[in-house]
Design brief:
- The chain is an all-alpha fold.
- It contains 16 helices and no strands.
């Protein structure tokens, strides 16, 4: 009997698909959020419009640094990404890029970023960007993420560094305003990410990642989300006296904060009566948290002009 023919066709991605895969490794949507917290702080630090060449160098260096961290995160999390619905379309999970190539790509991006920031900006910003990169890859992805339910609380600090980088790029040293904004992003991250993790808790459970929504009840998670939301809004108001913002910024912060806390309180109320995803609707809070941070930092950028 003739043996059945076995297809030996090997999928070879086109150049366009390969380029797109490498871009996806950098997680552009996350980078957008990081740049959003960099540029407004540069306006605040300069007391007006910062130098365009300085802005470009800082944003390019920051983009490459964040892209490096995200690519290296994909290398470490390749097996986890392949088991989760939310991430199984990522390049390494689809084998569009090899782990070795992604590793080299991430390291090169980090090196180029550091060179650009040292040469075109200053060593303080370069050092902060490098520290954020290392902390995200080693501190969060390798150490905290697989070990503790508080992984995103402390690991999320890596995403707060752009506030410091933006300030030091202009000023050359740290001060209280960027530290306050660092803490705003720090407290904002758990409500933002836990809302997303509630939506994909089955994914994280299947991948063996102990995100808080996996190991705690929806009510317990929602209670912590509300607490962090309140801390976020309270910290955002500290910028008013620290940076002498005038009354426009706190007015915007209060209005945005009231809606943010209201959304968190609504999630908590829904969690009292149901643990079902359809009833909880955590993505409402997730999407508003993005809008909240965007509008708040736009208000920060306006301070030199309306403060």
């Amino acid at each position: 009997m003739t043996a059945p023919l076995v297809s030996t066709t090997v999928f070879v991605p086109t150049v366009r698909e390969t380029v797109r895969a490498y871009v996806e490794l950098t997680k552009p949507r996350i980078i957008e959020l990081l740049l959003l917290t960099t540029l407004p702080v540069m306006f605040l630090a300069s007391g007006g419009v910062p130098s365009l060449p300085l802005v470009l160098a800082t944003l390019v260096g920051g983009t490459l640094s964040a892209g490096s961290a995200n690519a290296l995160n994909c290398v470490v999390d390749a097996d986890i990404d392949a088991r989760m619905r939310r991430t199984r379309r990522r390049p390494l999970a689809r084998q569009m890029v090899s782990r070795r190539s992604a590793l080299v790509f991430g390291i090169v991006l980090g090196f180029v970023s550091t060179v650009i920031l040292v040469v075109q900006v200053n060593w303080q910003s370069a050092l902060l960007a490098l520290a954020a990169n290392v902390f995200y890859v080693v501190g969060y992805t390798i150490w905290l993420k697989p070990r503790t339910t508080q992984n995103i609380v402390w690991g999320g600090a890596a995403g707060c560094f752009p506030t410091l980088i933006g300030w030091t790029a202009v000023d050359g040293s740290l001060a209280w305003p960027p530290v306050v904004l660092f803490l705003v992003v720090f407290f904002w991250t758990p409500p933002h990410f836990w809302a997303l993790a509630m939506r994909y808790r089955e994914d994280y459970a299947a991948a063996g990642v102990p995100m808080l929504p996996v190991v705690a009840t929806a009510h317990a998670v929602a209670r912590q989300i509300l607490g962090y939301a309140v801390a976020t809004v309270a910290t955002s108001l500290v910028l008013w006296p620290v940076a002498h913002t005038g009354v426009v910024y706190p007015g915007i912060a209060v209005v945005l904060g009231a809606v943010f806390v209201g959304q968190a309180a609504l999630l908590l109320r829904r969690s009292r009566s149901s643990d079902e995803l359809a009833a909880l609707q955590p993505m409402r809070l997730f999407h508003f948290s993005n809008l909240y941070l965007t509008l708040l930092f736009i208000a920060v950028a306006l301070v030199p002009f309306v403060g």
